[in-house]
């Protein structure tokens, strides 16, 4: 071994190791010309760090269920790259609270209703942290990252966009876009009437156009909605728990950032156009108009000035929060109705009754209110297959979540909704799709609203929940009027793919046939 070069390294490490032992010959090429002692030092530091990593993990985990040792450095990274329902269920069933570590981020999963709700309703201890890439995609100044009082105040101003009056303004936009898309689906089905087609991407496309139509009305051109839709898939794909840290060209986060730039460009333009239209005395026709009108209302208390960029960021946060969740809810809605012909028949009967046999009559909020059975079916569909399985929060300080366990400060703490929504005490036969359970006001489902965590709970509870439920009902009701659909069940139909939200693994393959009411 050539140690002659040792004189050239700093004196503090030049004296060689305290204990020497023979080195395997395969290592010698790597240490040619280097001071051997530095390798011992480096190795000792590395081993100490790895031991420390395990000790810290064990110290934080205490008695919680979870692996006794964490995989050095990466932890359960591989699992987080390819999440599966089965693995999640195992985790949730391992305990009301359980522990994992990914890249040294210590994570506490909360699966019971009590603990999930406690996290969502303890803003002094925990705040949403979304996925790792969210700040790069949404921009750090986006309102969704506000916390505490500033968040509450900002959000209060946005409530004007989801009042019953505002929702009523959106119904005609939703209806016309829905009719247009379903007619397109039927046109495409005509070319190959015997073959089922997956609705995964076509349903996403309809949702995107509906959202942009509702948010921006005529202030955004149709081709912009096409462009945003085309690029948006890059954003969905970037929503992994942990991403490659640098947004270098070619990475998923880089592509998502490019997609956001396109979306923000069009949304800013729409905000600008809405302000001009409202200043010229137009009636509100979309969400932006409702917002501008609410700011001009003399009774409105709160901040009155929002730049085009700020408005665009709010709309983009809505798109970000809704595109995947709404698509998941809608696609499972189609699948559940097709798999339960007895429910489908009741939905059709209700459509006939509420529309009085006139399928050209424009839909209104009052008509939507009368579709009680359809609404129960939508609620039940999202209970059985909750679009959002869990929401990552961060413990902003030591969080005494249970008598015998405190979540260490800066840990991730993840309330999971599945067990609450599948609690057999509240929802007997929880795996079964039974809309009737929502029709009995005294029944256990309605008596335990705290279990229905589809939209979260507490200060960050979904702001768009009424709109989302109404939109899914509107599309399914319209589809029930315009077509029949048959589900081609494959071995993958009842397995869930997790891409930010959950989807049937085969994309939900449907064979569509027009009814007499499809124009
Ligand atoms: C089926 C569709 C949807 C589902 C299942 C869903 C679910 C959720 C969930 C679970 C949360 C987190 C709640 C919490 O932390 O407690 C959330 C938050 C949020 N959702 Fe939704 N959502 C849906 C549609 C929408 C729509 C249509 C919009 C807007 C138009 C929207 C806007 C938001 C926003 C802005 C937040 C964050 C609220 C805040 O931090 O204050 N969501 N949603």
From TrEMBL:
<dbReference type="GO" id="GO:0004497">
    <property type="term" value="F:monooxygenase activity"/>
</dbReference>
<dbReference type="InterPro" id="IPR002401">
    <property type="entry name" value="Cyt_P450_E_grp-I"/>
</dbReference>
<feature type="binding site" description="axial binding residue">
    <location>
        <position position="462"/>
    </location>
    <ligand>
        <name>heme</name>
    </ligand>
</feature>
<dbReference type="GO" id="GO:0005506">
    <property type="term" value="F:iron ion binding"/>
</dbReference>
<comment type="similarity">
    <text>Belongs to the cytochrome P450 family.</text>
</comment>
<dbReference type="Pfam" id="PF00067">
    <property type="entry name" value="p450"/>
</dbReference>
<keyword id="KW-0560">Oxidoreductase</keyword>
<dbReference type="GO" id="GO:0020037">
    <property type="term" value="F:heme binding"/>
</dbReference>
<keyword id="KW-0349">Heme</keyword>
<keyword id="KW-0479">Metal-binding</keyword>
<protein>
    <recommendedName>
        <fullName>Cytochrome P450 sterol C22-desaturase</fullName>
    </recommendedName>
</protein>
<dbReference type="GO" id="GO:0016705">
    <property type="term" value="F:oxidoreductase activity, acting on paired donors, with incorporation or reduction of molecular oxygen"/>
</dbReference>
<keyword id="KW-0408">Iron</keyword>
<dbReference type="InterPro" id="IPR017972">
    <property type="entry name" value="Cyt_P450_CS"/>
</dbReference>
<dbReference type="InterPro" id="IPR036396">
    <property type="entry name" value="Cyt_P450_sf"/>
</dbReference>
<keyword id="KW-0503">Monooxygenase</keyword>
<dbReference type="GO" id="GO:0016125">
    <property type="term" value="P:sterol metabolic process"/>
</dbReference>
<dbReference type="InterPro" id="IPR001128">
    <property type="entry name" value="Cyt_P450"/>
</dbReference>
